[in-house]
Design brief:
3-stranded antiparallel sheet; alpha+beta; 5-stranded mixed sheet; 12 strands; Cytochrome p450
Length: 418
């Protein structure tokens, strides 16, 4: 399969800079975004998009070091209120700790962070491996399947159910709520309108309120996210909408990012078959390959900040109250910082030198869990399959925030043991 299989002939240089719309979901289809951000990094790395019909005006930060600066200076750039470009629905706000500033952010994050502490991750490793084995062993050999549905979604949803101690038979509700929370309403693919989104998220809240009430009464709380929130000093008295906001954060954070990296890895090894050859020759490269998958996928395309004071960035004057989008998906392709950044290289030196998890106080809480799931998955894949062959174009989700897949058609080829 060609290494340029998904590279489009789209030419962003034919469009005036002030006409580029960076939050159109379809720019992430067929890799059109790659050349768009390449141009911005060269010509206007701190680029003002003006008067968008849904999001107003906002700055697009596209260079690695500028993104790092914004992400690590929460005293200058606030995440309070919203992490996406559109302001929240005033009638249905969803406060969550990733969209808060210290000290409240620090207090709430501290309540749930033990679930991904090294000791707990070590205890989870056996559970994850057993589930990966069961999922992979259930797959048909030589038949076309949707990798997203049978593997990526199933594995991450099982993991989420474990972290929440969520009824296992209802685990696909978590997938649905994650999709609903991040859906592009205008596309109509997931939800028809904001009313449907709100109704389904209220169902999510009602379900989790029942779990909360059960666990708040338990004098010996379990080591799960709901129990941690129900008993945490800074979270046990939170409003229902704040509970829902933090649930959405934890569901999306635990679902979309890992799920799309699981799919991305298969896709990239087919796009770059020489890298798949390297992996077959040396499965020990999995440890380096995992962060390279996460860099190349960049599951969340951007995060938003708001300027707390007048400042300067990249020679541009940023005014207090201005919105800024840190385009991780662009910074991860910045060749001034990452050598051969447009290539997927599974033996890359310093493979963790990427922006996908963010930096500073908002760095992804579950980054090590995500890496562990991917590492175990690929270890088990390599013992079973000679290759996973992509047999059609991936179908991307319609979103400018979540960079992900809804379908990846593949055929599994069994490993021929000596």
């Amino acid at each position: 399969m060609s290494e340029a299989r998904t590279i489009s002939t789209f030419d962003p240089y034919s469009i005036p800079l002030d006409e580029l719309d960076l939050i159109r979901p379809d720019i992430f289809h067929h890799d059109k975004h790659v050349k768009i951000f390449e141009r911005l990094r060269k010509e206007d790395p701190v680029h003002l998009q003006k008067d968008h019909e849904n999001a107003g005006s906002f700055w697009n930060i596209t260079k690695y070091n500028d993104i790092m600066y914004v992400d690590t200076h929460h005293d200058l750039f606030s995440s309070d209120g919203s992490i996406v470009v559109d302001d929240q629905d005033e009638d249905f706000p969803l406060p969550m700790f990733i969209a808060m500033d210290p000290p409240k952010h620090d207090q709430q994050r501290k309540e749930v962070s033990p679930v991904v502490a090294p000791r707990n991750l070590a205890e989870l490793e056996g559970t994850i491996r057993k589930r990966v084995q069961d999922i992979l062993d259930s797959l048909p050999i030589g038949e076309e399947i949707n990798w997203v549905e049978l593997v990526s979604i199933e594995l991450t949803t099982q993991m989420l159910a474990t972290l929440f101690d969520f009824p296992f038979e209802d685990r696909r509700k978590l997938t649905r709520w994650s999709d609903v929370a991040t859906a592009d309403v205008e596309s109509g693919d997931i939800v028809a309108d904001e009313d449907q989104r709100r109704a389904e998220l209220i169902e999510c809240l009602e379900y989790f309120q029942n779990l909360w009430q059960q666990r708040a009464k338990d004098p010996n709380p379990g080591f799960d996210l709901v129990s941690m929130l129900a008993h945490g000093e800074s979270t046990k008295n939170m409003d229902p909408v704040e509970y829902l906001g933090n649930l959405v954060l934890l569901i999306v954070g635990g679902n979309d990012t890992t799920r799309n990296s699981i799919t991305g890895g298969v896709n990239f090894l087919n796009m770059f078959p020489k890298e798949y050859d390297k992996l077959r020759a040396d499965p020990g490269l999995i440890t380096k390959m995992v962060p390279e998958i996460i860099r190349y996928q960049t599951p969340l395309a951007y995060m938003r900040r708001t300027a707390l004071a007048d400042t300067e960035l990249g020679g541009k004057q940023i005014k207090k109250g201005d919105k800024l989008l840190m385009w991780y998906v662009s910074g991860n392709r910045d060749s001034d910082v990452i050598e051969r950044a447009d290539e997927f290289l599974i033996d890359r030196d310093r493979p963790r030198n990427h922006l996908s998890f963010g930096f500073g106080i908002h760095r992804c809480m579950g980054n090590r869990l995500a890496e562990m799931q991917l590492k175990i998955l690929w270890e088990e894949i390599m013992t079973r399959f000679d290759r996973i062959e992509v047999v059609g174009e991936p179908v991307m989700v319609k979103s400018s925030f979540v960079k992900g897949y809804s379908e990846l058609p593949v055929i599994l080829h069994k490993k021929q043991h000596a």
